[in-house]
Amino acid sequence: MLTLVLALGACSDDSARPAPAPSSPSLTPTSQPPTTEGTPGSTSRPSPSMSSEPVAPGDLDRSTAVRTVRHLAGRIGPREATGPSFRRAADWVSDRFAAMGYDVSRQRIDVPAGVSWQGAPLAAGRSANLVATPTGFDTSAPHLVVGAHLDTVSQAPGAEDNASGVGVVLAVAEAVADRRTRLPVVFVAFGAEEPRGPGDDLHHFGSREYVASLTPAERRAVRGMVSLDRVGVGTVVPVGSAAESDPVQQDLLAAARRVGVPTVPEADERSSDHWSFVKAGMPAARLGSTPYAGYHSAQDVPAVVSPGQLERVGRTVIAWLAPRGSG
Q1: Which end of the chain has fewer CB atoms < 10 Å from its terminal CB, N or C?
Q2: What is the pLDDT of residue 61?
Q3: In what ranges is there compositional bias, type Low complexity (predicted)?
């Protein structure tokens, strides 16, 4: 089975349709018991396990992503990586994964002081990655990673950046929880992605910590990683590679073609968590990055996010995860 690391205001859309995580001394189980209030889908799910039925793009329930955007950006709001709102959001996302039957661990991230996008000072503090895996998952066995960052810049509710990515991660995790994928999958909600100053050293803290925690065998086992970052605006899905091309980028483009999703390939895309994996020698790509007016501002509210675009991205991810030849 697969594990993955991955709700809106009033807006209409054109496409409506009827194992343990990587071992590290800082990776510990969450203390939060699973809750079912507000959990999309059923109120009780078995532990994810290998199923005889392959996952298919039609298994996606886009309302899960829509409700996630509404909750994270509409109810919780700005989620600066070291603040109390981030911790509330992390508890909520952890409960969603647990209610689907995943084992959820938290990986501590020590974040330095810095400055926000508009220059406001940020104190040093602690953030966390949430890592969701199926019971009994072997971290040294070949697997895939699907992730999205949960934090925002300090002034933005972060509907598109990046409740949209987290929403699609949860929707995909829900779809694959009782279905078979081509490889096991780890789902990660990364903390502290947003920059606290210029350059790589003050950016992508969560994914850098995750990658640093992997042993050489675990790094070799990562056969592909996808970062979902700003995936709810537009009608065409950007598919980004850190170089001219990447095998994961090419696989995602092919997956999108199979399900009829329009895409645009992008090169030299290094401004999301996939870049931490690429720098460490693992194949990885990014979905998302369409420009929009509310970027890193108080206007990044649920109404800017399109349910149809969330669905296009989710269907593309599921097509990438599905066993080859399963349709």
Answers
A1: C
A2: 98
A3: 24-54
